[in-house]
Structure prediction request, 270 residues.
Amino acid sequence: MHLAWHVTRKILLFVFLAIAVAVIVWWRNDRSEFNQQTSSSSQSAIQVKTTPTQTSFSKKQYSVNDPTSIWAVVNKGRVLPSDYIPANLTSPSIDLSDSSAADNMHLQASASAALEKLVTAAKADGLKLMLVSGYRSYATQSSVYSGYVSSSGQAFADSTSARAGHSEHQTGLAADLGALNGLCQLEKCFGDTPEGKWLATNAYKYGFIIRYQKNKTALTGYDYEPWHLRYVGGELAAEINKTDQTLEQFFDLPSYTGYPANGYQLKAGN
Ligand SMILES: [Zn+2]
Prediction:
C-alpha cells in the first residue's frame, strides 16, 4: 500500500508535468500563429501604402500655348499664327453635311477618331449625329467673320463668330455637330433636342467638351453653343466635366469677353 501510493504519486506528478508541458507548447504555438498573422497583416498594410495610387491629374502634361497641342487654348485674347495648319487633317467616317473633300469636313486625326466613337455610341442610343463644320483655315474664318460683320454688324459678329486666328476651328480640334434630321442646326434650341442633351451628358466620355456653355457666356465671350465641341482628350475632358469650369478657369488663364489690343500669340514649341 505504501509502495503503491509512492508509485501513484510519481505517476500523478508525471501526468501533471506532461499536461503542463502540453499547455505551454500549445500556448507558444498559438502565440506564434498570432504573431505571424499580425506581422503579415502589417506587411500587407505597408504594401497598400507603397502600392502606387492612381496618378493625379497633371495640368502640365500638354502645352496650352502650342497650336499643335491638344490642350491649346484659343480665345479672343489668344491668337493662332495666320499660317498655322494642323499636320494630320482627316475626314471622319461619319455622316457629313458636305462632301468629305471639303476642308471643313476635316479634323485632326485624334479628334476625328474620337468623334467616330462618339457618333457610334450616340447611334447605339438611337440618335443620329453629323459633322456640320470642322477645320476652318485662317482665310476661311476671315471670310466667315467678315460675312457676319457685313450682314449683322460687328457686335453680333463678335458674339457668334471669331476673328481670324481666334477660332478653335483653325486647330482642327473643334467640331460643330448637328442632328442628322437637321433640326435646330447651329441654333440654341439644339441644346434641347435629344441629340443636344446626349452630347451635353456624354461628350466628355469621348474626349470632347462643350466649349461655350449657357452659364459661362460672361467668361467665354461667346453665346451659348451647344453644338460646338472641342476635343481635348479623355483625361482633360473628364476633369473639365467634373469641375464644371471653362478651359480658361481650369488652367488659370485670363478670360476674355472682348479682343485685347495685344493678344497672346500661340507658337509651335511653346
Ligand atoms: Zn464651332
